[in-house]
Amino acid sequence: MDERELDVVGVRDVGPDTVAIDFETPEAFDAQPGQFVKLTLTVDGEDVSRFYTISSPTVAETFEITVGIDPDGELAPQLGALEAGDGVRIAGPFGSDYYEGESRVVVLAGGPGVGPAVGIAERALDDGNEAAVVYQDDTPVHEDRLDALAEAGAFVRVVGADEDLTDHVGEAVDGGGQVFIYGFADFLDAATEALEAAGVDTDDAKVENFG
Question: Could you list the residue range(s) of the whole structural domain that residue 114 is in?
Answer without folding.
Answer: 104-209
